[in-house]
């Protein structure tokens, strides 16, 4: 499952939710951020996320903090970050996030 979080001004932020997980009450997902803007780089990338109190979330460190401007000759670079959500009651997940 892919969920588009942001798709504006050349910044694309997609949450890829894994079909398989280590346990039935755990959701593993990968955040992928790409830059298709040819004039502005992404610097000091920081993603924050929160879930309701009956769940827990753990964010791994992002793969990088900066993305250069888009170069159509080179393969697109991406920042990736793993999110692990513990959902013991198996309720629908409400994810609040902030990207800066």
UniProtKB/TrEMBL annotation:
What are the GO MF terms of this UniProt record?
small GTPase binding
Superkingdom is Eukaryota
Q: Does the keyword Transport apply?
A: yes
Supply one GO BP term: Golgi to plasma membrane transport
* Example of a GO cellular component annotation carried by this entry: trans-Golgi network
The family database entries (SMART domains) matched by this protein are listed as: Alpha_adaptinC2
Cellular location of this protein? Endosome membrane; Golgi apparatus
Q: Has keyword NAD?
A: no
Keyword annotations? Golgi apparatus, Protein transport, Transport
- Annotated ranges, domain GAE: 1-100
Q: Which Gene3D superfamilies match?
A: 2.60.40.1230
Q: How does it sit in the membrane?
A: Peripheral membrane protein
| Protein name (Swiss-Prot/TrEMBL) | GAE domain-containing protein
Q: Which organism is it from?
A: Rotaria socialis
């Amino acid at each position: 499952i892919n969920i588009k979080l942001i798709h504006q001004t050349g910044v694309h932020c997609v949450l890829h939710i894994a079909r398989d997980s280590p346990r039935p009450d755990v959701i593993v997902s990968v955040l992928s951020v790409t830059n298709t803007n040819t004039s502005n780089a992404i610097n000091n990338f920081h993603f924050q996320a929160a879930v309701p109190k009956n769940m827990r979330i753990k964010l791994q460190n992002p793969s990088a903090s900066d993305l250069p401007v888009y170069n159509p000759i080179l393969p697109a670079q991406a920042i990736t970050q793993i999110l692990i959500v513990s959902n013991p009651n198996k309720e629908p997940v409400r994810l609040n996030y902030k990207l800066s």
